[in-house]
């Protein structure tokens, strides 16, 4: 894909979707809901080895719920994490590619079913029998690899620099760029040095697939580490490969203000896929429900996020196909009134 097409890539896709696109919901937490035990440093990537059929099934559930973009199971799949498990470099790279293949298989099954017309209720009145679908290859942050919840603190310690982060991420980004995915999704980025590291890799490796960046926040003002969301967004906005910027795995109640801050520094599409408002306890390795929002509340935010400037909306941890179905309804209604 040439660079010129990258500049219109997401805009063209959004037009095809009617103005708004639906991102899928939590992958790892949905795998757990289906019985997978992800208490492991590889988290959802553990299923790449043990139960790829379950990953495909969850992707398919999200497509059937209306998702236009499904995100691969490579979030916590790192060559370093695989090596710690005795998985060789070559096998690790094959597993990264496999995560994208599984998502593509789910898309094929979905397209096939749709073309056979087995979902009669799917025609939304536009004559479109099925949703256009992109596969995004997930890249989780260095904090995700640490598997201690530090993608929500962004505090990596003094020993971690832009250089060490580049060394950490470079090969995985190259492999995923060549995996056949439509785009790369840098997810849950918690600080400025990691945004900088990714941006430099994109430039140095002349990565030629579109990418999006999403940051995590725990106060609705800054990214998780306390670095300015405007500054982080500006850094990535200047990369030619970047087709969208946004927020994921952050409480719904913080999203609107963050969209407004991002909008001030970019004209690129804004994407949001919040979690359900619970917080992750990295020590106990569990989600704490205290301030979670119920599904109806989550969905009641969607119009506000779109009014503030978001055009891609989905869910992150602890959201489900039901959440995505409800988001899809809101966005379909908005698309028809554009
Ligand atoms: Zn999440």
Automatic annotation (TrEMBL):
Zn(2+) binds at residues 249, 316-317. The keyword Zinc applies. Keywords: Metal-binding, Methyltransferase, Transferase, Zinc. Residues 9-331 form the Hcy-binding domain. It comes from the Eukaryota. Its cofactor is Zn(2+). Transmembrane segments: none annotated. PANTHER family: HOMOCYSTEINE S-METHYLTRANSFERASE 2-LIKE, ZGC:172121. NCBIfam families: PRK09485.1 (NF007020). This is Homocysteine S-methyltransferase 2. The lineage of its organism: Eukaryota, Viridiplantae, Streptophyta, Embryophyta, Tracheophyta.
């Amino acid at each position: 894909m040439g660079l010129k097409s990258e500049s219109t890539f997401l805009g063209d896709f959004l037009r095809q979707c009617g103005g708004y696109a639906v991102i899928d919901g939590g992958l790892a937490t949905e795998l757990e809901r289906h019985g997978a035990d992800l208490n492991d440093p590889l988290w959802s990537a553990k299923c790449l080895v043990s139960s790829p059929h379950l990953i495909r099934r969850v992707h398919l559930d999200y497509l059937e719920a209306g998702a236009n973009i499904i995100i691969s199971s490579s979030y916590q799949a790192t060559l370093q994490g695989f090596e710690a498990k005795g998985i060789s470099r070559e096998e690790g790279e094959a597993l990264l590619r496999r995560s994208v293949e599984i998502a593509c298989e789910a898309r094929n099954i979905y397209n096939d079913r749709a073309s056979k017309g087995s979902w009669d209720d799917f025609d939304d009145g536009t004559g479109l029998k099925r949703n256009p679908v992109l596969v995004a290859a997930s890249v989780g942050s260095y904090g995700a690899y640490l598997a201690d919840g530090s993608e929500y603190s962004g505090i990596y310690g003094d020993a971690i620099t832009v250089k060490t982060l580049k060394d950490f991420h470079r090969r995985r980004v190259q492999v995923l760029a060549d995996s056949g995915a439509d785009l790369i999704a840098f997810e849950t980025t918690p600080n400025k040095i990691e945004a900088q590291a990714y941006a430099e890799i994109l430039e140095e490796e002349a990565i030629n697939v579109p990418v999006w960046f999403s940051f995590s926040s725990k106060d609705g003002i800054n990214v998780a580490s306390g670095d300015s969301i405007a500054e982080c967004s500006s850094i990535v906005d200047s990369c030619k490969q970047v087709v969208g910027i946004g927020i994921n795995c952050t409480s719904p109640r913080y999203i609107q203000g963050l969209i407004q801050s991002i909008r001030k520094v970019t004209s690129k599409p804004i994407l949001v896929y919040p979690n359900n408002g619970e917080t992750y306890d990295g020590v106990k390795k569990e989600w704490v429900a205290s301030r979670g929002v119920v599904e109806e509340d989550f969905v009641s935010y969607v119009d506000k996020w779109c009014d503030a400037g978001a055009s891609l909306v989905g869910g992150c941890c602890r959201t489900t196909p039901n959440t995505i179905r409800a988001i899809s309804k809101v966005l379909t209604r908005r698309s028809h009134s554009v």
